[in-house]
Amino acid sequence: MRPGDEQAELRAAVRSLLARHEGAAAWRPLVEQIGAAGLAVPEEYGGAGRGALETHVVMEELGRVLSPVPYLGSAVLTVRALLASGDRAACADLLPALAAGTSVGALAWAEDGSGDPARIRTEAESGGGPRLTGVKEHVLGGQDADVLLVVARSAAGPSLFAVPVDGPGVTVEPLETMDATRPQARVRLAGARARPVGAGGDGGRVLARALDEAVVALAAEQVGGAARALERTVEHVGNRVQFGRPIGSFQAVKHRLADGYVMVESARSLALAAATASAEDSPRLPLLAAAAGSACAEAFSAVAGEMIQLHGGIGFTWEHDAHRYFKRAHGSGLLLGTPSRHRGRLAAALDLVPGPSRAAVARP
Predict the structure, then answer these.
(1) How far does CA 258 lie from the centroid of its chain?
(2) What CATH number did the domain enclosing 17 receive?
(3) Rg of the chain's alpha carbons, rounded to an integer?
(4) What DSSP letter does each residue of 41-70 carry, written as one string?
(5) Which of 86, 295, 313, 324 sits 20 to 30 Å CA-CA off 193?
(6) What percent of the chain has pLDDT over 70?
(7) CATH code of the domain covering residue 214
(8) Residues 90 and 111 in one domain
(9) pTM, two decimal places
(10) Is the pLDDT of residue 347 over 50?
(11) What is the three-class DSSP state of 19?
């Protein structure tokens, strides 16, 4: 069977499963029937040994239904950070349960509205084993996590640590977010016991790689959400009649839908190119991740906005899903870096930014 056929079968299986299991109830079937949590985990750690292209398929399908399952936080961010750390002992200890879906992980790095390692203030205090003190914001799926991977400052520089969520000195507070389909939490650490993961001072590199992988996965999700929003809008304007004819027959509406289609398909191409770069471990990954992160976020926001407008009055109500796509689009556009931030990274990678300005756009 060709790789493309396998991915088509995976897509069909995930779409069928999500049609039968709505919301958070889809997580157990996804991990037990499809093995979604372990797709990108090497076989030696209990996974399927696949990669970014399979993750791309799953994320696109999750995006179509605005699924709240912890796939991005656990199966992408946490798994990718562990693998990037190169710590075989930590991988052997943590990845099998993550791959099986019996454990959920969360990567905690952001503080003070920024994911820049230079702005991290959480401290790793030595003596009797590392103890972490600080506050992490916007931790994806933190309230459902069993294990936290925390980026903190140490004597060697930014470093990665594993922290048990139920350990002393750890408090997890669910956050009220605009997008209720994307659970986030605040994690307070007060002398929490931690285990070093990877080499000391290597946290910045590990975080950069994990975030690039996550931006690529999020781009696929954004494409899925945008495509579904466009499909539903086309269906609506084909059925909604005014002045004796479907509103989709009006030239102005056709133009808006055509513009949306071009944006979605362009974003789809960039998202797939970025996933391919990740699967091939290409040095172009940071560049393509930035390009996809910008284009896919903007396409989703534009199409979700048109969904609201072209649905008319009902698009503004709680009775219709249009507001959910709109909120997911704008929330995901801020999650791992804004489109302008990604374009800044892209410009820096292409040497379009003067030298002194490059450091400001070096991170998502």
Answers:
(1) 27
(2) 1.10.540.10
(3) 21
(4) S-GGGTS----HHHHHHHHHHHHHTT--ST
(5) 86
(6) 94
(7) 1.20.140.10
(8) no
(9) 0.93
(10) yes
(11) helix
